[in-house]
Design brief:
- The chain is 32% helix and 22% strand.
- It is an alpha/beta fold and 656 residues long.
- Strand 28 and strand 29 (568-577) form a beta hairpin.
- Helix 8 (175-185) crosses helix 9 (205-213) and helix 14 (365-374) packs across helix 16.
- Bound molecules: 5'-O-[(S)-ethoxy(hydroxy)phosphoryl]adenosine.
């Protein structure tokens, strides 16, 4: 099975119309509806968003201006007062949803737990009070490094409740990566667990936290809260570490939601970019609440009777917007799963669907490709008839995988929403609305109402139909990131200056290549910068390079992506060694291990290639393009005239 190429997707002509019974009951039920709403929003974006903010959310105090756009810095619902935890919890308690399942949790090995809205409310309030007792105040940052257990969502909502921005760090990141993120955010408290279950083994989270904080390496952290999950022995540092269940004893289950300014920071989430240091993407309260709410409602066509499951981890933006905030703000039932397909149960995802009668299922193409490989007898031996809508996110989906998903999982009756978006955008930007827009396998189709998406050249001009260009957004939207934490200039540089502003009109540069076809459908082709997409996870090439050169044996490193059937891309590292070190299988293993300990298992290079020198231009820039060709086993294409020393290339070829 191959990754989508320009040629393959240009030939993709299949069109799947929504079934009429699906459309009839959908929130947006026809193409005409979509077009009308889209045009309305385009003509007067502020009126469009204001009306939704009024009807869909509860506010403590109204805003006095919808949008304040000091490009590229946006403020939405200026001076409005709101709390997203209130919108996710309190407002569902004075109606029948009070006893509805808010969170259904399926844990490994065989644990499960369901929290109703009123139970979740009480847990969140209690934990908010615990944080307050530890001295956490509005504005203080809280690090969350957790397995996929209800307490992860509870901690996020508790932070939001008292106005302490959270910074969730994916539990697969190493102690080193955790330390950097906690330091950048200057977190006061860290919430973690003794361990988490991953593929029949324990991930020692608390041990990683101890390593990250050792030698006072994160001076801002005063306290660590530990959920008991796996019960293995861990060390607790007196004065600093506390068991969650100890501190929760006797604490009040009521805690008023702090009225937050619409523009108060809700969270910071680190993501990879083209430079070595991950950036803290900042999202604020009001705009993010509205955007995650309305995209969840319309794109997943959420109904009160639905059981909705997004398989992401809360450590990523997808978990923030589409496991926690979006679904709960809508009063939905959201499923959270701690496990992952593993040798002892390759059909575990389908078991979860059958067990809870999941209606809406949202996952990543890399997972779908893995399922294809595992064989269709796994899904076919489970009852998946409850499903009515499927979604994908994280990377382009190849048409073969799309068709398999459609046939084998969706039984040819479920629409598929292929959703394009980013950590930075806060929510889904380009996607079918499932009752309205016919789908084409491999295309994310059309922009969400209120989103002015385009494919442009580097001057910002729209490129002709079916020609490749850069994916760009023309107008601010409520869910957009506000800044890079602590570095507004980096925000401007990274996203708003690749395409020079024209007459004061700023264009958001997404970092993806794309094309728009004759029907106005978007086909996203993948990153055009030095960002890799490994199994749907974002990884900066520079991040991996910095990890490699921090090893004493490595002089220089250049990292590129190599197309991979399963992961989308695999990390290939070209490495030159310091003086006395010699290439060996041992050293290659050691370097891979080193990257895992510096960043985490998601960054493990698939291949290390030792070389005497790296191909560079005369001005000393590594020519990654050539390395990408070499890694993929292709002929080196394009211009090589700027190469400083041609023999380097020849040697690399021979080496391969
Ligand atoms: C890629 C994940 C094609 C893209 C929500 C983007 C996609 C990056 C799609 C963001 C899709 C995400 N089709 N590519 N449907 N969805 N991407 O920040 O390259 O982890 O820029 O956010 O994933 O990754 P991030």
């Amino acid at each position: 099975m191959s990754q989508p190429t320009i040629e393959s997707i240009l030939q993709e002509k299949r069109l799947f119309h929504p079934h009429s019974d699906f459309s009839q009951s959908a929130h947006i039920s026809s193409l005409e509806d979509y077009q009308r709403i889209y045009e309305e929003a385009k003509a007067d974006p502020q009126a469009f968003w204001a009306k939704l903010a009024e009807t869909e959310l509860d506010w403590f105090a109204p805003w006095d201006k919808v949008l304040d756009w000091q490009a590229p810095f946006a403020k939405w619902f200026v001076n409005g007062k709101i709390n997203i935890s209130y919108n996710c919890l309190d407002r569902h308690l004075n109606n029948w949803r009070k006893n509805k399942a808010a969170l259904i949790w399926e844990g490994e090995p065989g644990d499960s737990r369901t929290l109703t809205y009123s139970q979740l409310y009480r847990e969140v309030c209690q934990f908010a009070n615990v944080l307050k007792q530890l001295g956490v105040k509005k504005g203080d940052r809280v690090g969350i490094y957790m397995p996929m257990i209800p307490e992860a969502a509870i901690a996020m909502l508790a932070c939001a409740r008292i106005g302490a921005p959270h910074s969730v760090v994916f539990g697969g990141f190493s102690a080193e990566a955790l330390r950097d993120r906690l330091n950048d955010a200057a977190a006061k408290v860290v919430v973690t667990a003794d361990g988490g279950w991953r593929k029949d083994a324990i991930v020692p989270l608390k041990e990683q936290v101890d390593k990250a904080l050792a030698d006072d390496a994160v001076p801002s952290v005063t306290d660590v809260l530990v959920v008991q999950r796996t019960k293995q022995k861990i060390s607790m540092s007196v004065g600093r570490d506390h068991w969650w269940h100890d501190l929760q004893q006797g604490v009040s289950a009521h805690c008023p939601a702090e009225p937050m300014d619409s523009e108060d920071m809700l969270f910071v989430l680190y993501t990879s970019g083209s430079t070595g240091k991950p950036k803290g993407v900042v999202h604020t309260t009001g705009g993010y609440n509205l955007y995650s709410h309305i995209t969840t409602k319309w794109i997943f066509d959420l109904k009160d009777t639905d059981v909705y499951w997004c398989t992401a981890d809360v450590g990523w933006i997808t978990g923030h917007s589409y496991i926690v905030y979006g679904p709960l703000s809508n009063g939905a039932t959201t499923v959270m799963y701690e496990g992952a397909p593993r040798a002892s149960n390759l059909g575990c995802f389908w078991d979860v669907i059958e067990k809870y009668g999941v209606n809406i299922f949202y996952t990543a193409p890399t997972a779908i490709r893995a399922f294809i490989k595992m064989g269709e007898h796994h899904p076919k031996s489970r009852n998946l008839s409850s499903l009515r809508l499927l979604g994908t996110v994280g990377e382009p989906i190849n048409p073969e995988a799309w068709m398999w998903y459609h046939k084998i999982i969706g039984g040819e009756r479920c629409p598929i929403v292929d959703t394009w978006w980013q950590t930075e955008t806060g929510g889904i930007m380009i996607t079918p609305l499932p009752g309205a827009i016919a789908t084409k396998p491999g295309s994310a189709t059309k922009p969400f109402p209120g989103i002015i998406a385009d494919v442009v050249d580097l001057e910002g001009n729209t490129v002709p139909e079916n020609e490749g260009g850069y994916l760009a957004i023309r107008h601010p939207w409520p869910g957009m990131m506000r800044t890079v934490y602590g570095d507004p200039e980096r925000f401007r540089r990274t996203y708003w200056e690749h395409i020079p502003p024209q007459n004061g009109n700023y264009t958001y540069f997404a970092g993806d290549g794309a094309r728009k076809d004759e029907d106005g459908y978007f086909w996203v082709m993948g990153r055009v910068d030095d960002v890799l997409n490994v199994s749907g996870h974002r990884l900066g090439t520079m991040e991996v390079e910095s990890a490699l050169v921090s090893h004493p044996a490595v002089a220089e490193a250049a990292v590129v992506g190599k197309p991979d059937d399963l992961k989308g891309e695999e990390v290939v590292a070209f490495v030159t060694l310091e003086g006395s070190f010699q290439p060996s299988e041992e050293l290659s293993k050691e370097l891979k291990k080193h990257v895992v300990s510096e960043i985490g298992a998601i960054a493990r290079p698939g291949e290390i290639r030792f070389t005497d020198a790296l191909p560079k231009t005369r001005s000393g820039k590594i020519m990654r393009r050539l390395l990408r060709n070499l890694a993929a086993g292709q002929e080196v294409s394009g211009d090589t005239s700027t190469l400083e020393d041609r023999s380097v290339l020849d040697k690399l070829r021979e080496g391969a």
